[in-house]
Amino acid sequence: MKQIHPILLQVCYNFVADYIILFFIKRDLFPEKKQFQIIKAAAIFSMTYVIWEWTTTGMPPVTREIFKWCSILALICRFFKITSVSLFRKTITVFLCYLFLMGGSVTFFLTCIQIDQVKAIKEAYKAIAVLFLSSGILLAYKRKQKQEKREEEARKNIYDIQISRKGKTITCRGFYDSGNLLTSHITGQGVCIITQEKAREILMPKEQQEVKKILTDSSESLSWRMWAKQFQEGMYILQYSSVGKKNAKMPGVMAEQIVVLKNEEVLVKTKGMLGISSEKFVEQNTFSILLPADIFEREKNRNII
């Protein structure tokens, strides 16, 4: 009986510790894992540790540590079904952070019980250092994880766009903006806003000059000459209001075909108005077009002119 109690104590202690660590890893990286799977894995982890503790006593210290960490890494990869290097790196980072947080907390608690001893005080300082270090690493990782999540959400709204006009076709990236409610009075549909730099690739030289004139004109009212150009040259004037702007003007041209794709699958094929903006988008290097809110509600190949 005297030999059973230490084993049971080690099993229970390691089970609780492993469960807490695995629970936090599941929460951060593997939310699809079920609760009973975490309990089962914690039991396997704790039993493996106890077996390692009792069967490797005769090995050299370095060999024991290598064997222990190899067993831990193998169990983690097996349980979470890790197949990529990036996921393995993320999982191990989180695992080590929570491991050191728990180890530092336990060490600090145990040393506080015998704080009158000089050695215990030194151990407490070490534990505090481990706590601060692992907390800092974990905080930095959490921030990076949030940034990656925001970028992933943004990528979901990024699409491949093909625009054809007057025999010219361009391919670029577009961002679906549900807040883009600018509507053309000509088509009755939302306006795709394209940067002036990208629009040059599908504009004729004379159209580029007209676009520049409209964008540099500071007057709020529309002259009859501007309206006339809509019928003579197919250059439309779009009026809009936004924060800090009232009755602002934006040149517009009709696109013969606008195709929206995702992973090479055609989602929308339509005609529509292109609004040309002189302002650069926030993520200029990521996309060149802001798709309107109604783009996915349009019928394929619908003739709107």
From TrEMBL:
The keyword Transmembrane applies. InterPro entries: SpoIIGA. Keywords: Membrane, Transmembrane, Transmembrane helix. It comes from the Bacteria. It holds the Pfam family Peptidase_U4. Coiled coil: none annotated. The chain crosses the membrane at residues 6-25, 37-54, 95-118, 124-141. This is Sigma-E processing peptidase SpoIIGA. It comes from Anaerobutyricum soehngenii.
